[in-house]
Known about the structure:
The protein is mainly α. 67% of the residues lie in helices and 0% in strands. The chain contains nine helices and no strands. The chain has helices spanning 47-68, 71-74, 78-102, 106-129, 135-151, 162-188, 194-211, 215-218, 223-244. It is globular. The model has no long low-confidence stretch (mean pLDDT 85).
Amino acid sequence: TLAVLTVSDTASSVHCDSTWTPATNPVPASVSDDYPFPYLQTPSIPAMTLVSLLLILVVAGIAVRLAAGRLRTIAGYTDLFAMGAAFLLLETKSVVQFALLFGTTWVVNALVFGGILLSILAAIEVSRRFQVTRIGLVYALLLVAVAIAWVVPFHDFLGLAFVPRLIAATVFSFAPVFLANLLFAQRFRSTSDSTTAFAANLLGAIVGGVLEYSALLVGYRALLILVAILYAIAFLTGRSSLTAA
């Protein structure tokens, strides 16, 4: 069976001799910017994908256990674990947003990852030169940035010229990334066991990579809810360590 996916901004440009009528299965819903999965008939995660993700988690858990010791020790760095998971979700959201505004190309992906790396570098340099004492305020700013990204639909920027669109996309995408890495740098510098702390963060990043696939169920915009929940967990579980430091 041959299927052709044809897209046009005007209905009159698409000419079809006949319209396909399904025999039994329902026609998949139209895709959107938030849910760009034309080959999923219903919101779901394929079984093979679930098995692969489970294997990734098992292998990652074993590797971290061998490198960093007992997982019970890693539990003392729950906040770093949550930060790692949330950061991977922020990264995914940034890639999707830039693809929406500038196209899905390797150049766009390179710009996104380059911007993320520059945001990380900026956060490290700020943390190296200044001691951030009002951690609660930084967490509040981070949650505000995530909330703004939730409220403002990115497709509203499509009507802007290239330079204003790039500026808006950069601010909306990388402001949460900068704040998140500023918090991570402040927290990591206060750890007494850097190996275990990094193991917790790395394991959280792997879990965050797995959670990215929840977009197949709820769409990419809902990932921001997970980000907010994870950073709230990081704040509640790690504020005592940051205060002591």
